[in-house]
Amino acid sequence: MRILLPKLAVIKHSLALILVLILGMSSVYAVDEHAINVPAPKGEECVEDAKWMRVNHFKTVLNHRDDTVIRGIRTTKHSLKNCIDCHITPNETGDYARYSNSEEHFCASCHTTAAVTIDCFSCHADRPEHVIRAARQQSQLEALKENSVHVSATELILNTPQP
Amino acid sequence: MNQMNKKYALLSKSEQDVSQGVDKGKRTFIGGLVGASGLAVAPGVMLYQTASAKPVEQAVSNAVRWGMLVNVNQCAEDCDDCVTACNDEHGLWPKEGSTTDSQWIRKLTVKDPSTGNAKSLPMMCQHCENPPCVDVCPTGASFKREDGIVLVNMHTCIGCRYCMMACPYKARSFVHETLENQLPDSPRGKGCVESCNMCVNKIDAGDNTTACAEACSKAGHEAITFGDLNDPESDISTQLKAHGGNQIRADLGLNTGVRYQGL
Amino acid sequence: MDTLRYGAIEARSPKYWALLIGLGLVAMIGVLSAHHMEVEGHVISGMNNQIVWGMPHVFAVFLIVAASGALNVASIASVFGKTEYKPLGRLSALLAIALLAGGLAVLVLDLGRPDRLIVAMTTYNFKSIFAWNILLYTGFFAIVGFYMWCMMDHAMQKFSKQAGLFAFIWRLVLTTGTGSIFGFLVARSAYDTAMLAPMFIMMSFAIGLAFYIIVMLASYQWSERPIGDLIVNRMRNLLGIFIAAVMYFVAVYHVTNLYATEHHAVEKFLLVDGGIFTQLFWYVQILLGGIVPLALIYAPQTRNCRRSLLAACALVLIGGMAHIYIIIVGGQAFPMEMFPGMEVSSSFFDGEVSAYTPSLWEILLGFGGIAITLLLVTVGVAILDFLPESLADNIVNYKK
Question: N or C end of chain A, less CB within 10 A?
């Protein structure tokens, strides 16, 4: 049984090797900050110091969240809506990236690299309002189009008087 | 073409604007536009509004208690503009016949079987002073704001649905599936309970009205009056004083913020 | 060989492992169903905005109610001093904990946001009976755990009586709390009564004992340990009393409701024209879950037959399940009386009896909960000394 155990030195060395690898990898990511393709914002500068924001944005958003929901304070400075309005900009083709399926999205670009999981955007808008309104309209039109295949059913829905 | 027009009519107002290429950009512009039409219809209301709007950086206080008064006699049976406006404001899209889609406001037909007399009225969260949903919520996610608005804090809602069991008005809906394209001012998502929030986003922005009240005025019915129940000079208070207003299920003693005349 | 000795059961037989793997599979399928329901949303369940609590809640309440009932066997010995029940105490505590764990697992996995369980654990609204229940349930684990320790550790035995008494009081409060979840809902006609809390306590007595008898007889049968008629017949008689008591409470619940005119509509719905609910009430709850088991227990032809006792227990469980289904789902299906005396209609199904068809996912989740319970018991009796090596009559009669 004893023979099967590796020597202490072997354990030590492999641990050291793993440590070096981890450190090496993280330093690669650390210096590679600019390699992340973070889309450019609309405005000139952030509401807070950009470097500070990079580290602390979730705190400001979280504080503001409770202020807004519970106390009804709706200043724009730290609101998520304001972040989105400024940071989510169209690409060359005029499309707005979604958080869920694109690393072009400002928030997703960094969260993906940093392996951060958030669920903000399962409820909150990940694009400015006018983009969302247009997308909503599009999906409503599509739903109506689908219905029109069965003309009688559509007629029925459209002509049913509201209670 | 006629068919297409009908379909088109299903789209909400602001969405039609978008489809016509009127890019509003910011939410405030849309609010301003709708507000402006409200101004034309009810200038008195607007005048009063400027008097009690709070600065955005200030927390809400219990100096005001927001409420609504529904004049059932003025509510048209075939009109559901309040429902459409609510859906548009909050990005709801209840499909007809769906048992799982959310409805924050609905039109009720109340018929007296002995006389045959039928009335139509909007039903939504009654914003009780003593809300059963707040009492039963295990995490405190269901809460009453200082200004009397009953809300769900969707950051702490665990989706147990006990509030839905407790609400005497069936005012609440549970989000049964993944949602897409929620609006910035009405974040909502799968697994949480939601209900009428008295357009808290509009109130905090100083609009001093709700989407349903606005739409009702616009339709020319003026059946919904929004205002401060604590202010004896407010439109809603003077109307209540002059003509009274019933609570639905008054027997439960909940002191609702939404009152009805003509029931 | 007439002293009481406890011993873990042999866990080496293929039968044992087959049982373990089978239960593990059912539990896993249950958890996967819940996961599927969370990913897709509750739209794939049968629940909707009218029937907001469905099959998972029926299973969860059933198991939680059974949990406090299963503890009774231990209480009878240590609180009421019936020494013949003393050898059964350890299993009673184990089963109580396992049932509660299974029930809570179902309840928690059905949440809209089960990922936020930590919120439920850390933020309390003390006005909510639900929040109190979270404390009552966690407390139950701790107290019954301690009680178990007192029963199993010789050095702790001196606290056994006090721990048993405390656990007994706690379980009464716990079931009152479970019943009150519904009893406090003034808005709904079927729930608005204080009768629900005592009725739930009585239901817990019957369901818990039935569950206990099944687990006990199965363990002794499969581990080939002797069990005498003395203890089995005592429990049989006790079960009979509990079944009768539940039926009494059900009768009082409906009769008091019938006394008030405002409740006539809901009573007519439950007892006469409620479709599935009426059928469940008369055929399953009353006939299969009450009258037939009573007959099996007291009829001279079946009085001493263990098979018929097992059948009676199974029927009590099925009847109890139907009872809880009627309370939870039936109570919601009946339209809310928003405008008493008026006919109400809307796009939100006001004034209509709501339909509910449970989906497979919900049912699988429910059975997953039962499997978790049985899995815990199966593992428990194999690793610790829960079961007496013999429950033959001379052992049961043994006086300290």
Answer: N
